[in-house]
Specification:
Length: about 425
């Protein structure tokens, strides 16, 4: 399963579990429950708000209605949530269980929202989209708040998500209020999203901006994820322009502070110029990262993938193998590729399940620029030392960042 073409249930789950006070009931076999939780818990081991109806053979024969009714009762006992999401998996939908009828007749003091998310009905992106549309249908018109915005496209399991969100809040300054983060917020705050003055929509979530503009008259701007100095400035300028704010002096201060830190490692940064790399990621982050690497660091992104084609994973790996790329930017899915080719992997995009992120070291915004450059230089230096034995005797132990990694790649590809 790839990050872009995986099961529809995973996309619906990502959206539902991102709501901080939601509980999720997966109406399917136990495998669906274990699979989703395995992606969710690496950095959130105490934040378990899900359960499963655990359908067995007899349920397939006689129907899963009783299992769903029983599970909903247990959910009410187990979780003090504001909303319950029921996600139907492949088995439940093959059986044509009347989940709507069960939910409609179930006595509950809280809303129960159904997302039909069988894997054979769509990919991960469609699961996210369907769950987001259900959320938007629950929203109601609100009185607008001046200089406030909704940030659309953040999820609970985004790698460095909390740190990136903090960095973006800092980057926007005190004059701009984040009204809601969709879907990574409390349920009530998400329902109050229409009271914001602006929707700031990451690429891939344009339909949210369009829908809410049509339904509530709420304007929106589409932004790239703010990687790097120029990416951060562009992000803030789009927001400021839409809210009719002047933030150039504030931007100048943040830029100067960032440059001052980077000047301390200018020699290393300079040697990144021309280094061939590969980038793979989701629609939210990949383009912003490519722009930063190419336009600000002067690196050569030889292989790039942010698509959702069925063969995208195979095509990406083959392209990387045939390229001169000496660093891969991606998710935990790219670990096997990086290990096989003996090149560093920098994890920055969903899903990441072999590293944790619990601190405040963002990759987004001005502060994140310093952290990302630091990470890039460090993995490159580490790779240099690991390759000391590749060139035979008589070669120096320390070789320039570019020449060492590029030469290693040449040896690998012939």
């Amino acid at each position: 399963m790839s990050a872009s073409t995986g099961c529809k249930l995973f996309g619906a789950y990502r959206t539902a579990i991102s709501i901080k006070d939601a509980a999720v009931l997966i109406h399917s076999t136990i495998g669906c429950n274990w699979g989703t939780i395995a992606f969710h818990i690496p950095s959130r081991q105490k934040d378990i708000r899900q359960a499963s109806t655990v359908l067995y053979e007899e349920d397939i024969i006689f129907g899963g209605k009783a299992a769903l009714e029983k599970a909903l009762g247990h959910m009410a006992e187990l979780y003090d949530s504001s909303v319950v999401f029921v996600l139907t998996g492949c088995v439940a939908e093959i059986m044509e269980d009347d989940a709507e009828g069960v939910i409609r007749n179930f006595p509950s003091s809280k809303p129960i929202l159904l997302v039909k998310a069988a894997g054979f009905k769509g990919d991960m992106v469609s699961g996210v989209d369907d769950a987001m549309k259900i959320l938007m249908d629950k929203m109601r018109a609100q009185k607008r708040k001046h200089n406030s915005l909704n940030l659309v496209g953040f999820f609970a399991d985004d790698f460095k998500g909390d740190a990136d969100l903090n960095s973006i809040k800092m980057m926007l300054g005190e004059n701009v209020e984040i009204n809601a983060v969709i879907p990574y917020d409390n349920y009530e705050k998400i329902l109050e999203a229409p009271r914001a003055a602006l929707n700031v929509v990451f690429e891939g979530f344009e339909y949210v901006g369009i829908y809410m503009e049509q339904k509530f008259g709420l304007p929106y701007v589409v932004v790239n994820f703010p990687y790097g100095i120029e990416g951060s400035k562009e992000f803030v300028r789009k927001v400021a322009g839409a809210l009719d704010l002047t933030m150039e002096e504030y931007l100048g201060e943040m830029e100067r502070a960032t440059v001052k830190k980077l000047e301390m490692v200018y020699g290393y940064v300079h040697k990144l110029y021309g280094m061939p790399v590969a980038v793979r990621g989701d629609r939210v982050r990949a383009k912003g990262l490519r722009s930063f690497l190419q336009n600000e660091l002067g690196m050569n992104v030889e292989v790039f993938s942010a698509g959702s084609a069925d063969n995208a994973e195979d095509d990406f790996e083959k392209s990387v193998e045939e390229s001169n790329a000496v660093i891969v930017f991606g998710s935990s899915y790219e670990r096997g590729l990086a290990d096989r080719l003996a090149v560093p992997l920098i994890r920055y995009t969903y899903p990441v399940f072999d590293s944790i992120s619990i601190g405040n070291r963002s990759y987004a915004g001005f502060e994140g620029t310093v952290n990302l450059v630091e990470e890039l230089i460090n993995v490159t230096m580490t790779a240099n030392y690991r390759r000391d034995g590749m060139y035979g005797e008589g070669l120096p132990a320390k070789i320039s960042l570019v020449s060492d990694l590029t030469r290693a790649k040449c040896l690998r590809t012939g």
